[in-house]
Amino acid sequence: MLDQPAAQLPVSQRTNPERSFTEEVRALRLGDGEIFRGEGILAVTKAILQSGVAYVGGYQGAPVSHLVDVLVESQDLLDELGVHLETCTNESSAAALLGASINYPMRGCVTWKSIVGTNVAADALSNLASPGVIGGALIVVGEDYGEGASVIQERTQAYALKSSVWLMDPRPSLPTIVRCTEKAFELSEATNTPVMMELRIRACHVTGEFVARDNVPPAISRNHRLAEPAAHNYDRISHPPSTYAHEKIKVEVRQPAAERFIVEHGLNEHLSGERSDLGIIVQGGITNVLVRGLDRLEVEGKIPTLVLNVTHPLAPDQIADFCKGKRAVLIVEEGAPDYIEQAIHVILRKRDIDTKVYGKDVLSMAGEYTAEVVTEGLLKFFAQSANDIDLSGPRERFEAARAGRAEAQRLLGGPLPLRPPGFCVGCPERPVFSAIKLLEREVGKVHISSDIGCHSFATLAPFNLGNSILGFGMSLAAAGAVAPVMQKRTISVMGDGGFWHNGLLSGVASSMFNRGDRVLVIMQNGYTSATGAQFIPNTSGNRRDGETTSDIAATLKAMGVGWLRTIRTYNVGTMLKTLREAMSTDDKGLKVIVADGECQLARQRRIRPQVAAQLKRGERVVRTRYGVDDEVCTGDHSCIRLSGCPSLVVKPSPDPLRSDPVASVNNGCVGCGLCGEVADAAVLCPSFYKADIVQNATWWDRLKWRVRSKVIGAMAC
Amino acid sequence: MKPVTILIGALGGDGGGVLCDWIVSAAQSRGLAVQATQIPGVAQRTGATTYYVEVMPAGAATSSVLALNPAMGEVDVALATELLEAGRMIFNGFVTPDRTTLIASTHRVLAIGERMAMGDGSFDVGKLLRAVKERSREQILFDMDQAAEESGGVINAVLLGALAGSGKLPIPDSAFEAAIRHAGKSVDTNLAAFAFGRGHARGELEQAVREHRKRQTAVQGVEDLIERARRTYPATSLDVVEEGIRRLTAYQDRSYAALYLDRLDTIQALGAADLLREVARHLAVRMSFEDVIRVAQAKTSAERMARVRAEVRAKEQEPLEITEHFKPGIEEIAAVLPPALAQRLLAWGERSGSLGKTYFSMHVRTTTILGFARLRLVAGLRWWRPRTSRYVEERSEIERWLGQIRDAAPLSLDFAREIAESARLIKGYGDTHRRGLDNYRRIADEVIAPALAGRMTPRAAADAVASARVAALADPEGQSLSKTLAAIAAATPPMRQAAE
Questions:
Q1: CB of A53 within 8 A of CB of A215?
Q2: Which of B72, B214, B436 sits opposite A405 (nearest CB)?
Q3: I want to staple B297 with a disulfide (CB 3.0 to 4.6 A). Which of B225, B308, B379, B430 is the partner?
């Protein structure tokens, strides 16, 4: 085995001090009249503090991780205000957190990535929505939809509809987002209903400014505790017969109250325009695309537009009044199904308003509403509803742009090479997949059940490993019915994030319970790395104390897992041997390999400043990196196919007689040693070398070096 | 009033987010309405991503509704930290000749699909540059990766400098520099990189293009051989032949280089200059086949240490430890034994099942005297090479290959050239070498031999060999090669029984 790079911390001591939000934390302290500048999601975080929340919770996930991440580092501020922060282990525990507002007049806010997070939270969400709340309850969901999204393309709207939870979709401008956040709590309290607020990716990251207000310390809080629990009230328990009453109250009391509130507080915006015969109804979140589209068609400011910052419930009278007397109205509603369009049809039909409704017939049913999609939809809408508007100019420009794109694509000759996300330089998860590839060379293809997390990148080039992804922490459960029908054992891959989120019970417990003969590889890198290196139960550095709460191996032992190995991931040879054993052992139970290796991104963040300091102090530091002898490499690139490390690149061959480019290690190399390990385990070639550069060398280092160089120089060919 | 629209294409890790922050804070410091957004997703894990910024000119209402998505034909300035990403913005129709100023780095960071190819899989840079020139209004192009390196900073600061230098935003340089200072992270290097970028954008700085120089083998006492080559061969192939002579002398000795020329003479006799050049190139490579002796020679050559030091950026006074990774197996050992012994060893390996299983993992530190001496010893074995089984095997392979080229030439020079070119498949070590050699042999047996036996028209044969060679480089599992060979076989009439 090779000697490994700088010894790494045991998982229990992995912390990530470099990730800091000092700037953001300062922004959260702004007071009356001061100007807040920053991203949308941070504005929401400030707004909930201005609204006097008593507790905040959530589960990380793009694009809303920031909300909890920043608060985790604002402990002082939270202590001053008495706000409790719960970094939940999954979305259902976050949703359950809102249960506090069922019995107590406390405002609370939780956040997660939707649609997936809302799926996980669904059970608690239903049980929360049924009895309803007396303290304002806000759920900020990151609507991970369209370009840049990483999850299934479904709408959160569905949950709002079926659970009678109100859904806000604010226009992506900071003042609007902040106002909606603050109003959401009032709406929630006025209607005893939890409110969801969806923010799309671009809205979460949109920059802007608004005039801040002082943060409001909650009346009931960690700093002002209650002497007595709430009196027992069976109506507040989601259990029959209460649930029958709840269902009626939702539609007979809460929804009408919400519809009134929306109108009275002007939550939806009305953009006026001279064309009284036409109108557009748009989701708040899509407004900017629409407005720019109208501008493109030179009709901006001419078409009356109703901006729905609240997309459930709709205020029927408001919709009806807007449509009345108009020939045609266009509904701009992103994603399928067309819930809003259908609802508006019903509202108008019931009131015998014969305004023609356009929507998904001129706009695409599925997919993101980009500038191109919306422009095309508007052109169709006006062509069919208002042929008196001359759009020849804009239409020509639009067609010309498309023709130009076609020309560009002709010039480039077909699709460009894709650049999918992949493992970082020195990622500890990469070696595991190198080992699995080598295993498949021996035993043939294996059914691999993949999971959510960085390791899902193994489903992409160069590994192309993985048969299915069934959700976060689901990889072991997803192999349940595959394993019994396979001659070879199945391998499920799961991250430690996924393990604590869901895999422990949905996967391990179920597999043990059913005597599943499967192999599980748990990537123990110490963080939920794909969402920004948040801490998890097996990491220390939990913001309050430095103590690890739970250890994965110990947990598995306690659950009765018999075949358990913990392997340092970079040892490809050992990993391969262990996988081989797991696949062939007579043990018929669950076989778990804990692949241990700290997230390299986090590790680098931690050690870079440390090393820099050491160098400054003039201390001896050995820098390790790898290299390829371009005279020995013949340019087959097997090493790249087995690793795909971003720092393992190709360069033109220096050999005047060879044409194929040769492999080369660039300066991004962090010396993890994988390329050497792979060359060794796969018996590739002798091109790789490890270089240890001694910085701030001692006199002894120098002397040794001088003597050796002399002698070696004399011996050289 | 219309906003200035800016689209940024970057790779995760290029600092596109920070670049956005700098632009935004610079605009805000001038009291301009500005809005930026991004779709980072998981791009920090090396994927491609984009950022979109809109800046209103001075005097515009700060309440104006700005867009969050770029639109085709409505981008004023496109920034790309890498050439393919510039191509991507063009491909998507955002960069247009009537409006867009394209500010892009000319360096390439190959995508995984390009890197993992078995040969050269990189996208045609010529196409990219042509699209850049034809599909944008103005271009500011230079190697920003190199500029970043020279300035000691990071590429996003260079790009910011280039943006400032372009003068496309109503924002003075001082505001951008203030933004960098305000951010407060590695201010000095970022300011230096900014200045570099601005200098290049304004044409005040020249950039020496990074050239990838080919390395000639250094060897003395071959003047007479080179003289002989110059007398016999056309000038068009001399550079290759001369390098062949030098390489083979260094690899083995003068007489081996002479053998090289003897073999070439038989090709020269065919009287086709370009065929000669191709064969000369491949023959030199084939004759300097990779065995442990050659690897030891390469690792102990006089120039290597300097090369490694430069590659790993070791400073003047910094001692360096090099650890080599070797893992010879039974085959590698057999390769340096005489044929008879080698056969016995391999036979034993076959029986004991240790062939392709047993390897000796060695990690030799060539910066220690003993470690270097060990390799130097192996390198010294080259006098013994002609007696090794590998040498004998390679000799017959080479003779067969040359023979086929000679037989093919009268039929069709294209056919002959394709045969010569197919030698390219044989490269590497261990499994890689075995796979390459097997593929080559399959083509030789299943395509070239039948073709020479007259069961294909020479033209068809040339195409068949070419397509088979491409297929062999398509996937390591050899699936496409099998498909292609099957297709070729189906297209050729069966061998007459009388043949044997």
A1: no
A2: B72
A3: B379
Reading the block at residue A334, the tokens are 């992103």
Q: What is the DSSP letter of A367?
A: S
Test A637 with B41 for CB contact under 8 angstroms.
Answer: no
Distance of CA B448 to the CA centre of its chain: 29
Which residue in this structure is represented by tokens 């991203």?
Answer: A39
Q: With contact defined as beta carbons under 8 Å apart, do A203 and A286 qualify?
A: no
**Residues of A with Cβ-Cβ distance to B93 under 8 angstroms:** 401-402, 404-405, 408
Q: For testing the chain A interface, which of B25, B44, B52, B68 should be mutated: the one with the most A CBs within 10 Å?
A: B68
CA-closest candidate to residue A638, choices A444, A438, A442: A438
Taking residues A572-592, report their average pLDDT: 96
Query: pTM higher than 0.90, yes or no?
Result: yes
Q: Is the ipTM of this complex over 0.85?
A: yes
Q: Which two tokens stand for residue B378?
A: 């192996």
Q: What is the mean pLDDT of residues A522-537?
A: 87
* pLDDT tier for residue B334 given thresholds of 50, 70 and 90: very high
Token couple for A596: 């241990």
Q: Which burial class, exposed, middle or buried, applies to B206 when counting CB atoms under 10 A from its CB (0-12, 13-18, 19+)?
A: exposed
Cβ–Cβ below 8 Å for A421 and B12:
yes
| Three-class DSSP labels, chain B | CCCEEEEEEEECCCCHHHHHHHHHHHHHHCCCCEEEEECCCCCCCCCEEEEEEEECCCCCCCCCCCCCCCCCCCCCEEEECCHHHHHHHHHCCCCCCCCCEEEEECCCCCCHHHHCCCCCCCCCHHHHHHHHHHHCCEEEEECHHHHHHHHCCCHHHHHHHHHHHHCCCCCCHHHHHHHHHHHCCCHHHHHHHHHHHHHHHCCCCCCCCCCCCCCCCCCCCCHHHHHHHHHHCCHHHHHHHHHHHHHHHHHCCHHHHHHHHHHHHHHHCCCCHHHHHHHHHHHHHHHCCCCHHHHHHHHCCCCHHHHHHHHCCCCCCCCEEEEEEECCEHHHHHHCCCHHHHHHHHHHHHHHCCCCCCECCEEEECCCHHHHHHHHHHHHHHHHHHHCHHHHHHHHHHHHHHHHHHHHHHHCHHHHHHHHHHHHHCCCCHHHHHHHHHHHHHHHHHHHHHHHHHHCCHHHHHHHHHHHHHHHCCCCCCHHHHHHHHHHHHHCCCCCHHHC
Pairing between β-strand A519-524 and β-strand A527-528 as defined by DSSP bridges: unpaired
Task: Count CA atoms closer than 13 A to B379's CA, side-chain side.
Answer: 20
Q: What is the dihedral of CA A372, A378, A381, A386, to 10 degrees?
A: -140
A367 touches chain B (CB under 8 A): no
- pLDDT > 70 fraction of chain A, expressed in percent and rounded: 96
Is the confidence at residue A3, as pLDDT, over 50? Answer: no
Residues of B in contact with A644 (CB under 8 A): 112, 115-116
Q: What span, in angstroms and rounded, lies between the C-alpha atoms of A65 and A77? A: 19
Best A402, A636, A690, A696 member to test B by mutation, with max B CBs in 10 Å, is A636
Q: Are strands B77-80 and B4-11 parallel, antiparallel or unpaired?
A: parallel
Say yes or no for a CB contact (<8 Å) between B87 and A655: no
Q: Taking a C-beta distance cutoff of 8 angstroms, is the pair B247, B253 a contact?
A: no
pLDDT tier at A603 (50, 70, 90 boundaries)?
confident
- Are the beta carbons of A532 and A69 closer than 8 angstroms? yes
| Cβ-Cβ contacts under 8 Å, A41 against chain B | none
B184 phi-psi bin (left φ>0, alpha ψ -120 to 50, beta other): left
Calpha distance B197→B181 (Å, rounded): 17
Alpha helix segments (H runs only) across A453-586: 496-498, 510-513, 552-558, 572-584
